[in-house]
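Dear support,

I submitted the protein below through the web form. The confirmation email said the job was done, but the results page showed an empty box. After a refresh the structure appeared. I'm attaching both so you can tell me whether what I see now is the final result or a partial one.
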Amino acid sequence: MRPSGDESARARETATAPVTSEEDALRAKVLDSFKVVCICNKIKKGTILKAIAGGAKNLGDVKRATRAGTGACGTQRGGVTRCTAAIREMLEEAKRARDLDTPEADQ
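What the results page shows now:
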């Protein structure tokens, strides 16, 4: 079924409407969440961030919640996986964000 003239015009307007920086930031955030952090278990950044938001406070918590950092690459490196540094950085960023939200930080 072909779109009517009005529907087609609206679709063109939507497709050509200028994109705001807020929309660009949201798109970038969404795309970033789909990046694979743990290649062994195919765990995406968004999954790890959701675990952190859900209460994971350290690497062990993230591993238990997501299986990230538990893959075969760690067996060849003495238990340190390729994604460990990225997970630790995400934990640090979340900790900094929480610290900024505390009332003591405002004083």
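Response: this is the final, complete result; the empty box was a page-load delay. Residues 2 and 8 are 9 Å apart (CA to CA).
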